[in-house]
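User: I'm new to structure prediction. If I give you an amino acid sequence, what do you actually give back? Let's try with this one:
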Amino acid sequence: MKRFYKTVSVSPAGDAFAIALDGRPMKTPQRNPLAVPQPALADAIAAEWMAQGEDIIPASMPLTGLAQGALDQVDSDRDRIVGRIAAFADSDMLYYRADDSQQALIDYQAQHWDPLLDWARQRYDVGFNLIHGIRYEAQPAETIARLTNVVEAQDGFALAAMLSLVGLSGSLVATLALVEKIHDTETLWPLVNLEELWQEEQWGQDDQAVAARNVKKAEFEAAARFLELART
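Assistant: Good question. You get back a string of structure tokens that encode the predicted 3D arrangement of the chain. For your 232 residues, that looks like this:
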């Protein structure tokens, strides 16, 4: 799509802050007003639109996409979104450890992952089953229920960010560490890519895998930034 506007502005809209192009309030794909809860987030979204060149490139506007998701998807289908995020309470990648033939990797995983799980145990009063190998083992029902309640307590904008974060990381615990401001992306991204980075140390890098991981890292950082700006 060709750029069709000259100016981008932000203005109060009730309890929210709306973005306008050439003075015309923007709408989401579902025709909801593009209005967000914090002025810093509105300014950041406006900056994405202002930075567009002759062509509008949606992939270069992750904050806009997340805001649209919050307004169009979370608001209209909140229970489904909560369920998709909370499902990771039963399948968090931090639960899955190497099999017994890879003791060095088991030790490495424990060194880096156990502190994050220990934080979650204490913070939410939950327990986890650690699994060696790729077999499935259910987590305690009380753990799933309590972490689901934590997810349900988030507002729509946080849920939009969390849906992206759990999908990119495979970890609800790591996502909650961002929500709770326990760690930042620079700490968490290597943790949720620990096995891949370990394999690269042993066997060398695959350029395509590195490029794909860097794309995901940028998306992860954008979702984390959206989460932060939405509650500033």
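You can read the tokens as a compact description of the fold. Here is one thing that stands out. Residues 1-52 form a domain with the ATP12-like fold (CATH 3.30.2180.10).
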